[in-house]
């Protein structure tokens, strides 16, 4: 299969390469690729060099780095001057409030600079086989011209190293802060449930993110990824999530504005402004749930679908991405959000082991300063199907309603 290459792009008049992978071509690319595999296997440090190596190892590196994943963000919807059609990126690439973040310049490095990163070892296990009472899967169809294979995986990193664990919950702390998981899990929520008030806002900073059509032979790298059709992506998941909250006694509203179109850059600024306005309309909001979907690409160009199988059904794995003030933006009460996040992650993994991938705590803010119960949830990935994502979202919404109403996970 022909390997795709990331392309540098212009930002602020300067030419930049990807954060972890610069684009300097070297004659040692093949040797470096082998070195990457060895270094990853032994959990060591590695030096990435070469355009081909960057594209070839990006997905695997991202998966090892706490499943903060990378993918080629291709879509005809976006102005190529703002978002190149083949730009490899970390999940949530522009970061929160990218325009005013003092660390925004650190997201990219000069293309000729060598970057050394550390790869913690993780265990990625395949999901259990389908329930025997289910019919066997249909024969695999041939991939289309622009399709790449889709592989189901269950992301369950081993505890230790970069991963902190407490029972069945796990965290990848990407900040310099010490986080007391046990104390935050046991702490009461920083708000009280009120059935008479609208307390939850469901929003989508990247509202055009969509899922892989059910029954596809693979993943179409040209047609898939983003769509303005709200019925095929995170908008549909958010609508279901909001409805389930309301059905379970927690009053919620759904913002259906698309904040990443026509401009993907600055989408966090757009959603932040929307939250500010909606808080005026709903002054009792205590929780903002920003629903995204992740993207995981393998070393050979395949797309990974993170799922866990329960009662013969595939559930898209979820991941909480939580912000802090380490990036320089005001967010003094960021630990309050973790009190809710840890309780939700535990509640989910109590019901289905591995429903939640390890939480990722980051230096960015992700607009989570707006309420004491803010959450960013990655629901599946670009290779997940909408039914898989909706299955997990429905369960997560029911569990979140229980946590908000005071049903503490045991």
Write structural notes for this entry.
This protein has 410 residues and is α/β, with parallel strands linked by helices. It folds into 2 domains: 9-119, no CATH class; 147-404, Zn-dependent exopeptidases (Aminopeptidase). The protein has 7 helices and 22 strands. A hairpin with a 2-residue loop joins strand 11 and strand 12 (169-173). The N and C termini lie far apart (48 Å).
Annotation field: number of helices: 7
Number of strands: 22
- Major sheet size, sense and barrel closure: 8 strands, mixed
Q: State the CATH class of the largest domain.
A: Alpha Beta
Look at the structure and give the mean pLDDT.
Answer: 76
**Helix content range:** 10-25%
Which structural class is indicated by helix and strand composition? alpha/beta
Q: Which superfamily, in CATH terms, is the homologous superfamily of the largest domain?
A: Zn-dependent exopeptidases
pLDDT < 50 runs, ≥5 residues: 1-125
Radius of gyration: 20 Å
- Might you state the CATH topology name of the largest domain? Aminopeptidase
In the CATH hierarchy, what is the architecture of the largest domain at level 2?
A: 3-Layer(aba) Sandwich
């Amino acid at each position: 299969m022909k390997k795709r290459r990331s392309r540098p792009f212009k930002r602020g008049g300067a030419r930049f390469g990807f954060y972890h992978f610069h684009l300097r071509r070297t004659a040692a690319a093949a040797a470096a690729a082998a070195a990457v595999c060895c270094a990853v296997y032994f959990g060591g440090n590695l030096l990435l060099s070469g355009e081909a190596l960057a594209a070839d190892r990006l997905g695997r590196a991202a998966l090892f780095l706490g499943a903060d994943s990378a993918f080629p963000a291709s879509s005809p919807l976006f102005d190529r001057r703002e978002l190149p059609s083949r730009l490899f990126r970390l999940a949530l690439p522009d970061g929160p409030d990218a325009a005013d973040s003092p660390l925004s310049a650190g997201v990219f490095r000069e293309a000729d600079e060598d970057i050394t990163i550390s790869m913690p070892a993780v265990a990625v296990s395949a999901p259990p086989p389908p329930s025997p009472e289910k019919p066997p899967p249909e024969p695999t169809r041939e991939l289309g011209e622009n399709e790449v294979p889709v592989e189901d995986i269950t992301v369950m990193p081993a505890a230790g190293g970069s991963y902190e664990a407490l029972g069945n919950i796990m965290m990848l702390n990407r900040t310099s802060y010490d986080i007391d998981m046990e104390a935050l899990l046991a702490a009461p929520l920083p708000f009280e449930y009120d059935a008479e008030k609208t307390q939850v806002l469901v929003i989508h900073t990247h509202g055009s993110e969509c899922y892989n059509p059910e029954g596809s032979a693979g993943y179409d790298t040209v047609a898939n990824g983003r769509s303005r059709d709200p019925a095929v992506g995170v908008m549909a998941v958010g609508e279901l999530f909001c409805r389930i909250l309301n059905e379970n006694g927690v009053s919620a509203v759904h913002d259906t504005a698309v904040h990443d179109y026509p401009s993907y850059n600055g989408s966090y600024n757009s959603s932040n402004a929307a939250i500010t306005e909606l808080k005026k309309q709903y002054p009792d909001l205590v929780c903002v749930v920003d629903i995204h979907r992740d993207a995981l690409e393998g070393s050979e160009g395949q797309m990974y679908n993170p799922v866990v199988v329960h009662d013969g059904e595939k559930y898209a794995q979820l991941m909480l991405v939580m912000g802090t003030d380490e990036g320089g933006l005001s967010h003094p009460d960021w630990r309050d959000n973790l009190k809710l996040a840890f309780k939700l992650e535990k509640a989910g993994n109590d019901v289905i082991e591995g429903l939640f991938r390890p939480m990722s705590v980051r230096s960015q803010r992700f607009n989570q300063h707006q309420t004491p119960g803010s959450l960013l949830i990655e629901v599946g990935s670009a290779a997940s199907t909408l039914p898989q994502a909706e299955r997990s979202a429905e369960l997560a919404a029911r569990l979140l309603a229980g946590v908000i109403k005071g049903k503490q996970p045991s």
